[in-house]
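User: We ran a pulldown and think these components assemble together. Before we commit to crystallization trials, I'd like a predicted model of the whole complex to look at. Sequences follow.
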Amino acid sequence: MTSRRTFLKGGVAAAVFAPAIASAQAAAGKVVVVGGGYAGATAARTLKTLRPATDVTLVEPNPVYTSCPFSNSVLANLREIGQQQFRYDGIKRTGVKVAETSVTAVDADAKSVTLADGSKLPYDRLVMNPGIDFIWNAIQGYDEAASQKMPHAWKAGAQTVLLRQQLQAMEDGGLVVMSVPANPYRCPPGPYERASLIAYWLKVWKPKSKLLLLDAKDAFSKQRLFQNGWAELYPGMIEWVSLSKGGKVTAVDPATLTFTTEFGSHKAAVANVIPPQRAGAIAAQAGVADRTGWCPVEPVSFESTLRPNIHVLGDAAIMGGMPKSAFAANAQAKVCAAALVELLAGRKAADPILINTCYSLLAADYGISVAGVYRPDKGQLTDVPGAGGNSPLEVVGGFRGQEALYASSWFRTITSEVFG
Amino acid sequence: MRRWLVSGLAGALLLAGPAWSADVPPGGPPGASSCTGCHSGAKIADVVIPRIAGRKAEDIVTFMREYRSGAWPSSVMGRIAKGFDDQQTQAIAAWFAAQPE
Ligand SMILES: Cc1cc2nc3c(=O)[nH]c(=O)nc-3n(C[C@H](O)[C@H](O)[C@H](O)COP(=O)(O)OP(=O)(O)OC[C@H]3O[C@@H](n4cnc5c(N)ncnc54)[C@H](O)[C@@H]3O)c2cc1C
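Assistant: Here's a predicted model for the assembly, 521 residues in total across the polymer chains.
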């Protein structure tokens, strides 16, 4: 029989141990991270480091990650593809469980994901970082099979190697044609860096060749810096055709390497098609992508505005003013991990500030940059006014070389922070 | 109390570990976590961008002010420093100053 006395004792004991129980509950928490790119790998690792008690599982099918940043230098023979590749051992050492498989379905109501073998993984919070997928046939005739003849090389790896081989096999005097999509897409300045570095390589090895950029836009990132640099470094080699001049590619023929635009057609010796994109397919399956194909999120912890307890980071997400870059994905992931520490403990996350800096190379020793500082404003990540912007147009000697050194320093640092 | 203890330990022992206190969010004050994309937390070879972990807070604040005003020439730091006011800069500087060098 429970006397009033023992009951009271129990009451006291419960009161004494209450803080311990509360912290044990706060220590619990299962977080599943989908995708081990710049966003997902950073999120998993940072969360585990900040809050070691969290059960963090990173789901990624590839044992080796191939980085897109600096992959344009592989095309120009300045780097080898192996220097782009990183394994997940460093992340495993932090205590993150790495599941080498894909997520095939997300059940937001049941708070669980299904893996390729049919097994299920429950979560308290899900962090989705699936990157991009291509919208095949948005350009008529451009599907996955066509990408074997006209590589996109916009997911680095075998496609990067294929495009490099095609460039090396091309006869001097051949025409390289690139097709660039409308916004938004992964890495806004990336196509122009690629054009620059291909020209850098052509100038040495195939100096009679030319490069044609067919663009579905009338303006692009760091445009004047690129165009000034092209005039200085590669006079007459790169021709940019804007949307209003007929640059938009509507169809391709992989058999003849022909591009059809609104104004005519161009036959290439080497063809690079950067197709229109959307968030990685699993985002739509999970119900976190909207009609644009990308994922709307709130600007503090990047939780989906469409499904609770699911956060979306990196290229897949709509991040207001922030571009789709590896720098941004890494910065967002660190902010999200810190926010999850608060959310899992039942607290509120504070408003963050984020930075982005994207370097582009116009030659091995010629770099330019764009930077921005962002904070939440009216439900969106917004540029802090007065901050950010491009490298200056007029510079003293050594400035572009210095920015090229900063670019490779950034790559060393970020890949060591994420995968090291 | 517990929070205070954890925060003292973290500051002393951990590189990018938790520093829970009433006003510093986990992972650092607003903006701090972005810096390590370029300014490495760990010591690594072949980088020309200096580390800022363990530097004196007042030195970091002075640099940021001079970058912001343009008194100290820079490539990208002037553009970034303009996104932070003195108070935000001081919080970030104090955070990095407390990290092991
Ligand atoms: C040519 C080029 C150059 C670039 N240069 C730069 C640069 O200099 N600086 C810069 O900041 N950015 C650069 N970028 C952009 C950068 O590559 C991306 O912004 C970055 O990779 C985004 O990271 P993410 O984690 O969102 O996506 P990703 O890096 O694409 O990672 C997504 C991961 O999710 C995995 N995944 C997808 N679906 C599933 C699923 N269902 N289950 C499990 N895993 C899944 C994939 O396997 C992949 O590993 C460049 C891009 C290109 C193409």
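The pocket of flavin-adenine dinucleotide is lined by residues A 34-40, 59-62, 65, 68-69, 71-72, 102-103, 129-131, 154, 186-187, 190, 194, 280, 282, 314-316, 324-327, 329, 358-359 (CB under 6 Å). That may be worth checking against your pulldown data before setting up trials.

User: Thanks, that helps.
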